[in-house]
Design goal:
two-stranded parallel sheet, 13 strands, 13 helices, alpha/beta, Rossmann fold, seven-stranded parallel beta sheet, binds nicotinamide-adenine-dinucleotide, binds 2-acetamido-2-deoxy-beta-D-glucopyranose, 42% helix
Amino acid sequence: MVDRPPYVHRRWPNYSAPKLIFWASIFAALILFIILHSPPPDFSSDRRTTTTWGSLNWERRVQTSARTRSHSPSHSAGPGHLSVLVTGAAGFVGSHVSMALKRRGDGVVGLDNFNNYYDPSLKRARQKLLERAGVFVVEGDINDTALLNKLFDIVAFTHVMHLAAQAGVRYAMKNPSSYVHSNIAGLVSLFEVCKSANPQPAVVWASSSSVYGLNTKVPFAEKDRTDQPASLYAATKKAGEEIAHTYNHIYGLSITGLRFFTVYGPWGRPDMAYFFFTKDILKGKPIPIFEAPDDHGSVARDFTYIDDIVKGCVAAIDTAEKSTGSGGKKTGTAQLRVFNLGNTSPVPVTKLVSILENLLKKKAKKNVLPMPRNGDVLFTHANISYAKKELHYKPETDLQTGLKKFVDWYLDYYGSDKKSS
Ligand SMILES: NC(=O)c1ccc[n+]([C@@H]2O[C@H](COP(=O)([O-])OP(=O)(O)OC[C@H]3O[C@@H](n4cnc5c(N)ncnc54)[C@H](O)[C@@H]3O)[C@@H](O)[C@H]2O)c1
Ligand SMILES: *[C@@H]1O[C@H](CO)[C@@H](O)[C@H](O)[C@H]1NC(C)=O
Ligand SMILES: *[C@@H]1O[C@H](CO)[C@@H](O)[C@H](O)[C@H]1NC(C)=O
């Protein structure tokens, strides 16, 4: 409560006419109205990024983070000599990829807006790990072209690993514009800055297995149709692939799209089934198990362990050819690729639950429901022969082994000090 200023209570001198009192009260009421109705200070990401980035100290941190381990001059920009901008670096996949690149000696600068789609404290914890490893995560939005341009002014990035996005299939019905903001507008802003950069970086970015939508021909191969998305999320990823085509065609940007299949593992995403099943089984809370219609088999996913995905991402970076454009103009045909990164071994969700029950030594309370029509597809299964051939991609972790690692992490992270997920 704001204290009423003293002058409101003061009696007006005798000579004041009732009229004056009347206008004074109107005036006071007006002031009060303005105070009560003025918007609260704006702490939105836009405002904050413009004030937090750009200082000399900030620039120095970006430069240091982008430095490769080996200082010997190398003209072959091979592993250990790259400088990579990783968007979505505080996210699940982004934090793992950043760590892997840094570990082998590449320079890595992260970018993330730390939005609250899921518990941002998990993103902050990943950021802390990265900072300890020498990766600075810039706080900002991929749709902020001024910020992106500034980053490219400071560092001649050889590669962009673009993992920032609004993820999640069901949330698209609640907040559709967040998908347009990050997966469409943000992607275009990023490509705009990349095509204008000199030299242009090669871009590797995350599409999704969800682009296969309602397809029934399995396993899903890259050449299969992708024009029947079942969610707005899937539609924005499909749009991203088409947008990538135009930036490659017009500006000579080298672009590789990776269609991830249900990635899981330590430091994973709390909105995904394996994660909240774990949480709810431990709490004794019922978990929803979706059933396919009778004639459609079971609901199954091609679960892919994070370390396998990371290897695929790094291999995509290492096999990416240089962009051909210069000063925003194409000078020759550039590489354009899209790969499935899956595990080629779909597992029914019921099996996922029984593995978790064994690992957690606790029975799940199951709430069996018909599959709602909210964007999820029944079945995913990757054909990975193209990634095998070009990236030497070879998934090595089965679901049992991977979930064990996830559960160990989960119990360690949430077990001791009661952080709530
Ligand atoms: N995890 C999966 O199973 C899976 C499957 C298919 C595709 N993908 C894709 O892989 C990528 C990484 O996914 P993830 O599982 O690590 O998700 P995530 O949500 O953990 O990571 C994304 C990160 O990007 C950040 N971000 C979102 N919008 C941003 C914006 N406008 N500006 C800056 N930062 C922003 C978020 O804060 C988050 O930290 C995403 O593009 C996602 O769509 C993931
Ligand atoms: C993205 O940024 C551009 C300016 O660079 C702005 O015009 C646009 O409104 C932004 N889009 C979204 C969806 O936030
Ligand atoms: C997988 O895709 C390749 C093309 O990349 C195709 O030749 C092969 O037949 C497919 N395999 C299956 C099992 O469908």
